[in-house]
Amino acid sequence: MKHRVVWALILLSLAPLAASAQEPFDVAAATDAYLSQLSPEQKASSDAYFEGGYWLILWVFLYGAVEMWLLLGLGWSARMRDLAERVTSKAPLRTALYAVQFVLLTAVLDFPLTWYTGFFREHQYELANQTFGPWFGQQMIGLGLGLVVVPLLLMALYGVFRRAPQTWWLWGSAVMMAFLVIGMLLAPVYISPLFNTYTPVERPDVRDPVLEMARANGVPVDNVYVFDASVQSTRISANVSGILGTMRVSLNDNLLNRTSVPEIKAVMGHELGHYVLNHAYEGLMFFTLVILGAFGFLRFTYDWALARWGDGWGVRGIADPAGLPLLILLMSIYGFALTPVLNTYIRVNEAEADIFGLNAAREPDGFATTALKLSEYRKLNPGPIEEFLFFDHPSGRARIQMAMQWKAEHLDEVDESGGAAE
Ligand SMILES: [Zn+2]
Question: Where are the chain's structural domains?
Fold first, then answer.
């Protein structure tokens, strides 16, 4: 009797040793176990939604190209310019008047596509929460914003086009860059609040670990913001926005309400990564090159197209706002061709933020379950070429694998209790 108790005690004390001396953590098996949590229906819906997006890239490009071609070919663009010229003799005002007409007309012409991509399709996949009325109201806010920003941008662009007939493409790049910087600076303060309400996160169980993680990584934020994205959609997401003094870290209320604290930490670790790794400034430099490339492309193709079709369109030269549809058409060809390059640039940054987030949050399972939840709108397990061409974030499979690899190499540091939320 006594012996049995002793043996039981010995066995009990050895049990944890046996557990820790188990076979090494199998990264591939752990990754597959996560991937198989998605039901076949969930996977089918996720794949269909995301793969439909590949076709949309093409349709949106073609729709816009045909639209711009018609604005030129039917003489509508020239007519909008003529109207602006009858109203005023001041060149900047003429540009602004053309811009207002252009924004209104293209908003109407684009509406079927805007409705399909932004409303119908989102409801089809149960990603949207808004009924038509409020959705349309927000489209109108966007249109109002366009009616302010586009005339300003075009007045600046055509201002340099008029003054620099030879080097317009260089000055044009500079204007675009300036607007990009101003936009990044102002967006969190003046633009995002037009669409959503931002408030500081009150829950201490969420706010405190995130702020602790921010301080541990030298990120000078004193607040984490939550915004009411659930007004529009069911997607979970978070972001870093702004530059210089307007930089802030925000998470959306879907993330706050539908995920556990380890999952939120995993996501916010990723967002802090964007901040610490200076992705906003790196991105600015990268997009400077992209914009210079775009204007370099315009410099050659614009004159060529104008020499060929310009008379029929009634477009006089680079300084004529009636040529705007041609500028946009050529830019969209450049952008369409560059899609995989842009996606890859962003995806590489996102992968950097992922590994930063794993190290900062130390929540590989929270990270993996979040990657699973993101499959609601991003295909989980694409082929390598598919991922290269179309993914602007690492796929769920790549992310889960990265998290499991990290877990395998930090097994003694991971708090098992904080792991998978569901
Ligand atoms: Zn990111």
Answer: 33-414
